[in-house]
Amino acid sequence: MNNPLIPPPRGFEHSEFEQRTQKLQHEMEKQGIDAVFFSTEPEFRYFSGFKSQFWESPTRPWFLVVPSQGVPIAVVPEIGVAGFELTWIEDVRSWPSPRPEDDGVSLLTETLAEVSQRFLRIGAMLGPETHLRMPADNFSLLKENLTKFDFVDVSEIVRGIRSVKSSAEIEKIRFACEVAAGGFEYLLNHLQAGMTEREACKAMHLEMLRLGADSCPYLISASGQGGYDNIIMGPTDRKLDEGDILIIDTGANFEGYFSDFDRNYGFGRVDAQAQRAYEAVYQSTDAGLNTAAPGRTTGDVWQAMWSVLEDAGALGNDVGRMGHGLGMQLTEWPSNVPGGDVILQAGMVLTLEPGMTFAPGKMMVHEENILITDNGCEMLHQRAWPTMPIIG
Amino acid sequence: MNNPLIPPPRGFEHSEFEQRTQKLQHEMEKQGIDAVFFSTEPEFRYFSGFKSQFWESPTRPWFLVVPSQGVPIAVVPEIGVAGFELTWIEDVRSWPSPRPEDDGVSLLTETLAEVSQRFLRIGAMLGPETHLRMPADNFSLLKENLTKFDFVDVSEIVRGIRSVKSSAEIEKIRFACEVAAGGFEYLLNHLQAGMTEREACKAMHLEMLRLGADSCPYLISASGQGGYDNIIMGPTDRKLDEGDILIIDTGANFEGYFSDFDRNYGFGRVDAQAQRAYEAVYQSTDAGLNTAAPGRTTGDVWQAMWSVLEDAGALGNDVGRMGHGLGMQLTEWPSNVPGGDVILQAGMVLTLEPGMTFAPGKMMVHEENILITDNGCEMLHQRAWPTMPIIG
Questions:
Q1: How is chain A split into domains, by residue range?
Q2: Using CA atoms, how far apart are residues B288 and B336, in angstroms rounded to an integer?
Q3: Average pLDDT over residues B204-228
Q4: Shortest Cα distance, chain B CAs vs residue A217, angstroms
Q5: How far is B320 from chain A (nearest CA, A)?
Q6: Per-residue pLDDT for A318 more than 90?
Q7: Residues B56-93: pLDDT tens digits?
Q8: pTM of the entire structure?
């Protein structure tokens, strides 16, 4: 059992929320948008600083309205009002919720109408990788209530702003990464044949919490003789045995920011084919690290990593991408995909996630978390071992 | 540190998914609905048995289509296909995702058109306490693709089916409750003045995981001299001191099923006013336990609990309800509200959550988890202490 790591400060200066909001308002002005409303936790928190686990309950909708100037307006259930005292939000409007016959729709309608009189254009998150956290019937009703207004998608604007992290955000992500790295190191000394996948994950879960994670909402594993066939299910009660390869992929969370990377462990002995696959994927990460830099694209990063895997005889990759943005959500825009045209900028936090099917039904996937710097990129945590570690 | 509790079996028999699906298909037939599609994790899991933490990533949409007869059809990203091997789903259709220009919309369109030729009516979750987990623009596109079909809300049907739990579901919830009760007992012996709220919650988090919880996605606290002013924020770094009252409210999770209840602790000494409030709220729970039974309504339960609080001088309650359904989500339909007309049935799992503001800025909230039985109700875990426990 290790000592807790020293965490960075919690929360953010109010000036940081002001800067985030001003960036959005600047883009709104350019596109002739009067106001934007948000309904999902990450965006609500990003612009308001309101952080609560209460979003776990799906009963009540919560709305944040960002007008063209000044501070956002919270349109929230009464139960949440006290939670805004410490935020930079001043105008908090509430209704007694749950009230299924009108759960915030009339109050949101009034608020949006009030602040959208210049262009009659209202922004919302409508595009890829988003959803509206409100009943679809209520969104229809909102649009009916506001027929003289246009609703336009702002997901592209918002993802652009959110993808470049501040130094305070980066420190939180880095800490979440260090905690996960500590958990993987711990497993190196505590895994043994005969444990189940579930026991292995539980041991790591406890260790990450002890090291300082607030929570570990994502902690999956897969295993099999000489390889595994998926990276999104598990952990199961499958017992780890000699000849197995185990992957654990985790997203630890600190102060609302995620890490997201994995590690592979061999048990007793590892087939030469699997060890070769491990080393090829490790070299693929090298290629990613050498490519990821300001001015390069997500497609460049994908191509650099894939070339190595192709040369190593990859049969395919059904993950659909080899890494993605990371921050307030376990996965964020952009994705490292073939032909990806998103230009990397300093301050972006990404995962490099090279992976391949190296034999029928057998995958090898690595993942690391990086920060794009002025000159290239840097790892946010200790890197994977260059050869697959053998347990026992 | 306690020994782990003995958990009930994981997963469900395939026949249980079949029965759930048939109940839905029976209601669909009555309402002339050809097919229903789901996009959110609880419904997807409820009808398919597909359980994965991968939903934590917002990038890819997942769809389950329930036709009028037979087994549901999965319409999912390629990365998920291997996860269906152990489910009762046979027809798994996939696309390479992420593919923002068509992330499942054309495949979902084809699938729905194929199975909706009789009434041309498609059901979806559009009503209260739901959302669609897909980009709003994609839902618009789906409706454009299927203009000759009507889209109708099935949230009322689905919540009706889901609200009555099977014995296998109840055992999972009961276990999640026992783990949380064990965590609260542990705190009784391990809390001390000088700890922060965050340290108290972390100690309980670790203990619940050791006892057998898979995760604890909800673990909040609030504290203050003689009372607290909210129940949805925290934990903070506030140090617990003599004269404080601490509330912790947690949702432990086992195999995808939640508990959701709280406990209050006094530090050193407790004001007589707060102790009286504690006892009044305890008696309010008694009234709820004596009322909750098949044939009674959620309004009856609310009224029974509120009468006690009113007599005790309650200044108000800004939680908006005094308990709710519980199961695959931390909070589920129905709510115990004034005038609530939902008739309780055996097999429903509810929380009783009486609470009041007993002095300006000071709340007292209790919560317990119950099962509606043939004759009344039963607690799913050890009950709160009849007087507020004093730490130190």
A1: 14-162, 164-391
A2: 10
A3: 97
A4: 7
A5: 5
A6: no
A7: 999 999 999 999 999 999 999 999 998 999 999 999 99
A8: 0.97
Q: Which of A56, A100, A232 sits opposite B80 (nearest CB)?
A: A232
Q: Among A53, A77, A321, whose Cβ lies nearest the Cβ of B220? A: A53
Query: Cβ A209–B202 below 8 Å, yes or no?
Result: yes
Pairwise CB contact (< 8 Å): A52 & B132: no
**1.10.390.10, 3.40.190.10, 3.90.230.10, 1.10.10.10: which CATH number matches A164-391?**
3.90.230.10
Distance from CA of A59 to the nearest CA of B (A): 5
Tell which CATH architecture fits domain A14-162. 3-Layer(aba) Sandwich (3.40)
Determine the residue among A36, A53, A142, A207 to mutate to test chain B binding: the one whose Cβ has the most chain B Cβ atoms within 10 Å: A53
How high is the mean pLDDT of chain A?
97
Q: In this predicted structure, what is the pLDDT of residue B1? A: 54
ipTM for the whole complex: 0.96
